[in-house]
Amino acid sequence: MCADDKCLMAFEFLEKFGSKPGLERITKLLKLWGNPQNKMKVVLVSGTNGKGSTTAFLSSILAENSFRTGSFYSPHLLRFNERMKIDGAEISDSEVEKLEEEVKKWVDEGNIITYFEAVTACAYRYFAEHGVEYAIMEVGMGGRLDAVNPAQEEIAIVTSIGLEHTKWLGSQVSQIAYEKAGIMKKGLAITGAGIGLETIRSEARKKGMNLLVLGEDFEGNLREKNLDGSVFDYSNEIQLNGLEISMLGDFQVRNASLAVCAADNLDCSEKAIREGLKKAKIRGRMEILGTEPVVVADVAHNPAGVKALVDSLPVFGEKKIVCVFSCMRDKEYGEMLKVLGEKVNAFVVVKPEGKERAEEPEVLLEKAKEYAEAYTSAGIKDGIEFAKEMAGPDGMVLITGSIYMMEEVYEAFPEK
Fold it and tell me: Is 223 among the domain residues?
């Protein structure tokens, strides 16, 4: 049930079922509910990095084009309600409670379903019940066996490919690309992937799908950037110059270009594209939380994401950077620290409260010391304060490494 107004404990009773890839359980529940995923047009978004931002850009454009638009995100940062939005508005606590009761009743009858499967099924049902025309669905993990995939998509977007979730998806790039390309079943496919592209091409050919590739079939070229966002030019059959986005990071131009390509193929107007891009927001992506020193939070949690983050830091100018870092133990934190170590002056390693998957600070400390001065802290809030003192008013505190630390990070900056 929802705890006060945050729905923090929603669907917690399902965590006992763990994570089990497969579509049998969710397909059964969706069928019981009349297959709500078939009552709207669906865009599926998979990839190693950029899924959430691409979902946000495309959702904003479609809403500006007067389509009733549902957006599904995974995971949430602060509130469970962030996972399901219609035209940018989060699902209400009462709606979450109603859906949770429906799932609990079904489980009490002897059925098994995982947390993510249930939440995804509820998103499809919620969107269908509220007359959504387009549902933009962010994949949780992989794609082929991900819970969003029972839908017959209008467009499949594969943002990027990199090594992640190797326990589930395989240890080779080609294996991961195959799993993520598994959302490509019948409609148009769009990708920004460079690594793994041949596998994506192969899957598109097998299924007789038209595949549009960023850098080949359409372009997104950065023109200028500052602390208010970026300006870029988009081109394929159409030319859209001077498109503006408010989210920071060179990588956001790639994500925005994927969204523009999809929106163009869904016959959105130029006005909707321009306005939607500018209004699109998602938290935890090079988000500025404070000044003097500048405090930036980013949910990068794999080497490719961290590399993209580091490459975008010059927009802040030359500063002493102190990185507050935490990471789950099943992630490649050694490589992430190495990439960060090329740019940051010092690390403060921390562990999110109550997160058993998180690596111990003492372990992270030994690895971080290989690349920069490093310290531990008793907690995230204390770690941020320590990092601010080290950085000084003219420096920067960079908070990254795991999405699971963000709740405590935001508690340290309540004005945001």
Answer: yes
